[in-house]
Amino acid sequence: RGPPHRQQTGKLYLVDLAGSEDNRRTGNQGIRLKESGAINLSLFTLSKVVDALNAGAGGRVPYRDSKLTRLLQDSLGGSAHSVMITNIAPEYRYYFDTFSALNFAAKSKQIVNRPFVRETVLAPTIGER
C-alpha cells in the first residue's frame, strides 16, 4: 500500500507447562529435586495469579513473583488471545493429576482478556512516494 504505511506487530508465546512434580512418586534427587521444586513454585504462583484475576476487586495480582507469570502477563488478563490445551491421562493412577489439570483449566477459562490490534502508522521517509 501507499503512504501512510501501516505496520502491525504482535507476540507469540508457546509455553509448555510441565506438570507438578510429586517427588514421592518420581523419586527425584539432587539437581532434579531442586528443578522440580522450582517448577512447583512457578505453577503455584501461576495458580495464585489465576485466583487473583478471578477474584477481581482490583486486588494485587502477583505477576512479578515468578518468571513464568511475568512472561504470561499479556495472556493472563492482558491484551492477548490465549489458548490452553490440557493433556489428561485416562488411567486411574493419574486421577489426581487429571483432576487438578482440569480444575486449573476451568479456573483459567474464566479469565477475561481484552485483545486489541496494535497498529503503528509510519510516516513516509525521504524518497518514498
Keyword list:
single chain; two-stranded antiparallel sheet; 4 helices; elongated; P-loop_NTPase; cytoskeleton
Entry summary:
With 129 residues, the protein is mainly alpha-helical. It has 4 helices and 2 strands, in the order βααααβ. The chain has a two-stranded antiparallel ribbon with strand order 1-2.
Explain this structure:
This protein is mainly α and 129 residues long. Helices cover 38% and strands 6% of the residues. The chain contains 4 helices and 2 strands. The protein has a two-stranded antiparallel sheet with strand order 1-2. The longest helix has 25 residues, at 31-55. The radius of gyration is 20 Å and the shape is elongated. The protein starts with a strand and ends in a 7-residue tail after the last strand. 8% of the residues are buried. The mean pLDDT is 82. Belongs to the TRAFAC class myosin-kinesin ATPase superfamily. Kinesin family. Keywords: ATP-binding, Cytoplasm, Cytoskeleton, Nucleotide-binding.
